[in-house]
Write a structure and sequence with these properties.
This protein is of the alpha+beta class. The protein is built from 5 helices and 5 strands, in the order H-H-E-E-H-E-E-E-H-H. The protein has a 5-stranded mixed β-sheet with strand order 2-1-5-3-4, with helices on both faces. The protein is elongated, with a radius of gyration of 26 Å. The chain starts with 11 loop residues before the first helix and ends with a helix.
């Protein structure tokens, strides 16, 4: 059937076929061997990779998958169990740690992202047998409640007082 002069040069069907074929081609070519080398992306995983964390002034070497959170890496693989898992969504604050002077929710932070940064947990606040002043104040004023979210409160308080003495 001949085209009328007011019709566009292509139909909707031709347009959709072209877009679909272009999408398939981009997907195939994007996954070609050597595609990562060309883009400069260094892919890691899905298996365990070596990770070095600076936790409470000590270097900690772990073999973890890239998807492991900071909380899981320290609680499950390094036996630093002071910070707790509460909501696992970063809403309750029980997992609060200080990373390079800023508070973070460790349940929402990937361990692989904080390599090379100074990480402080509630486990590292006390010096020998002497509690940190904030920890001591929590004990003196019976501010422990059930004790489950207390580590997060302590870490948030320490960060606040260090930022605003």
């Amino acid at each position: 059937m001949p085209k009328r002069k007011d019709e566009p040069g292509f139909s909707r069907r031709t347009f959709l076929k072209t877009v679909g074929a272009g999408g398939v081609a981009a997907g195939v070519l994007g996954n070609a061997p050597g595609a990562d080398a060309q883009s400069g992306v260094n892919a890691v995983g899905p298996g365990a990779v070596p990770v070095t964390l600076n936790v409470n002034g000590r270097s900690l070497r772990l073999q973890i998958e890239p998807r492991v959170t900071l909380l899981d890496a320290l609680r499950m693989r390094a036996d630093l169990t002071g910070n707790k898992r509460g909501c696992d969504r970063g809403a309750c604050g029980a997992c609060t740690m200080i990373v390079d002077g800023r508070t973070v929710y460790a349940c929402s932070t990937l361990a692989i992202e904080v390599q090379g940064k100074k990480i402080r947990t509630v486990d590292g606040l006390a010096s020998g047998g002497t509690l940190h002043p904030v920890q001591q104040a929590f004990c003196d004023k019976d501010a422990l409640m059930c004790g489950f979210c207390t580590p997060g409160f302590v870490m948030a308080s320490v960060a606040l007082l260090e930022k605003h003495p």
